[in-house]
Amino acid sequence: xxxxxxxxxxxxxxxxxxxxxxxxxxxxxxxxxxxxxxxxxxxxxxxxxxxxxxxxxxxxxxxxxxxxxxxxxxxxxxxxxxxxxxxxxxxxxxxxxxxxxxxxxxxxxxxxxxxxxxxxxxxxxxxxxxxxxxxxxxxxxxxxxxxxxxxxxxxxxxxxxxxxxxxxxxxxxxxxxxxxxxxxxxxxxxxxxxxxxxxxxxxxxxxxxxxxxxxxxxxxxxxxxxxxxxxxxxxxxxxxxxxxxxxxxxxxxxxxxxxxxxxxxxxxxxxxxxxxxxxxxxxxxxxxxxxxxxxxxxxxxxxxxxxxxxxxxxxxxxxxxxxxxxxxxxxxxxxxxxxxxxxxxxxxxxxxxxxxxxxxxxxxxxxxxxxxxxxxxxxxxxxxxxxxxxxxxxxxxxxxxxxxxxxxxxxxxxxxxxxxxxxxxxxxxxxxxxxxxxxxxxxxxxxxxxxxxxxxxxxxxxxxxxxxxx
Length: 470
Description:
Number of strands: 0
Mean pLDDT: 79
Distance between the termini: 17 Å
Order of helices and strands: HHHHHHHHHHHHHHHHH
Shape: globular
């Protein structure tokens, strides 16, 4: 029996509130962390942190992705997931955390192995445990349970950084890592206190706890982890090429534009958190979710294009505030990077078939093809066109991944897509973009943005009703 449906608007409010806080803290933490840690230690942490999060996914062998599918489709309960992971996944998890902690400390150069390796391994393990709890929340469509984890974790981090910065406290990197371990431990204890009631209500928790089920989850999820690693390459490769192929002083300008375009990920995060459970739940509809998927594709394209348009209109004003002293902003490159971000975000609603069991290896393949195509094109274009060449490479990478994903997904499960409506939205976006490009600071530019948003919403009115009522 499937998990009772949570209305889409409630789920998106829960995930959206968590994403808003997480994005705000991450954005505001940068200058405070530089003051508290110093520029060098901040740079080291900025390299280590995404690596630790990727290792946390790997330590679960990707099973967290499969648990979302099993819970959303009613094939397992919360207690089944926890018992399965504890019984069959604990030893591999601990081993990968220890090896990953050692490799990350050595690779990043954090400091003394005796001091940093145990802390890095423990931090990766705690992040893995939190990720498992969040996967259960997402599979059960418990958006506010998921949000509570984010509120506590990033709320505590934000308050701690504000107080430390205000008091003029200077922390060593090892002290900062220790503080994060304390925060993660508190988050985990609060999560377990909430989950204890689920264990008590699950009378048949051991019925499906089999070795076969756990390793089936691993086979399902490992290709998704591989895709996540390739996505990191696709998302960051252009920056390394800019650094290698352009004068060293050009990198900061491109990094600022990439960071601003990366803000699109926060607009996509609530959708990406809500989508997997919704996708597997609607797969049980009489039409196998065809109407829902078609409406979701149209609404989400309108949403992402609107966010990109607003970001492009505001970017020239925001650069001067956020990156004083950094030159090199280019409107065309900024537009290309935002279009690449839209293509990245649209991979989620387009990707239906490759999320089925036994098909997830295609996710890694599509991301890998896109990464290769984008990096090859960027390598050819950057020496001649500079920033624009890098932006074209990034756009090509994500468009290739999007088209390949659609092609593979449709051959696994054909889903009708209303291309007429999607083309109309893209053409409307293109027309408004031309106006904004010529009139960045005028009322005409912002009027074009508003007109696109209103007309696009009118075109997708019926899709909005179907999606939010689902």
